[in-house]
Amino acid sequence: MHKSVLVPSIRLDAVPMQDGKDLDEIVAAIGESRIVLLGEASHGTSEFYSVRSAITKRLIEEKGFQLIAVEGDWPSCYEVNRFIKNYSNSPTSARAALGSFKRWPTWMWANEEIEELVGWLHTFNQNRTEQAKVGFYGLDVYSLWESMDEIIRYLKETNSPQLEQALQAFSCFEPYHGDEQHYGAAAVFSLSESCENEVVELLRSIRKERLANPGAEEQELNLEMNALVAVHAEQYYRAMMRGGSESWNIRDEHMTETIDKLLATHGPDAKIIVWEHNTHIGDARATDMADEGMVNVGQLVRERYGHEQVYAIGFGTYEGSVIASQKWGGDIEHMPVPPAMKGSWEEAVHETGLGDCWIEFRGRKEVYGESIGHRAIGVIYHPRAERYGNYVPTVMAERYDGFIFIDRTKALHPHAIEYTFA
């Protein structure tokens, strides 16, 4: 669509937002959706976190959402879960709980914006029954060794007869000394066999035991999910060495299975809020990802639960600053976000002169049904070269149900934490 038509259409449909606080229209649009997907155009923008926090609080207070699932490792997120639910021997503060995020890039979750939300969740859960407390969980698949350690720790603490099976299964990984990429390369390129069969059998055993002995639901969920992470992480690191779209799909299918498991565990009335990058929560079929054979969470949950049960909100900005790095495992940098590229979605929204605003796409596909470049910034970013890889061809009204635009953004406020690397 030509800008001369697109800009007036956005100006007509958009609702201005003052300091990110005018959320009534957004909460109303979400309605009775069971799954709310909250995106972000970068992993290092303060306003994306603060606005998602504000929406999350409203959904918890007004619509009874009890599950938050984020693009983070299960073991680290579970430490946050233990803190906000005030479990015994849990971290003593929100900041201490976030100290469990040691895998690079830690700034995604160990930051001041999330610290405020975690503190709020801790307070909200006080004096509520166990069943009524809000939980905080990780969706990602990177924590192969951390999840194995958690399984062994729990089985030892409970004197489980499955301990010997777990030790035997995980002994297969010992030659790789905690190096996931070393394991993946060995499993793909050498004559050594993968450890897949061992961890799959362990997961089956844990699931069978859980079905036979219900109770201690949260602890058993933690055990099963760490086992599931071990299975899918093993597959992920092997696929990563082979290249192509398989590793991406394993990761997003794992995230979707985790959402399924959380909803099933917490009952038919459970509702979940998901925090992930736009590339995960926006339907892949509305982008060039589909041409590469890639699927994502946004697509999969719509297919599994139906479009009416899912509400996906994308986020974007015209210019500002961001936390990112120039290379994987590199130093944190406070980087500029230059004005959006000419002809992009972000430039069109900026041209309306509305500033921060909210746009609903449902019922407006005839207006926002053409492909347009839509900015995406990852943990690795090169501002001067962003036109060569940071704009995703997108049919906005098919990728999202709504969109939040923050005209000028500022960088996230990370905690200072020592890193480990995937």
From TrEMBL:
Q: Which domain of life is it from?
A: Bacteria
Q: Which GO terms describe its biological process?
A: response to antibiotic
Xref: InterPro entries: Emycin_Estase, Hydrolase/PRTase-associated, UCP036794_erythomycin
Spans through the membrane: none
What is the name listed in the Swiss-Prot or TrEMBL entry for this protein?
Erythromycin esterase-like protein
Q: Which organism is it from?
A: Paenibacillus phyllosphaerae
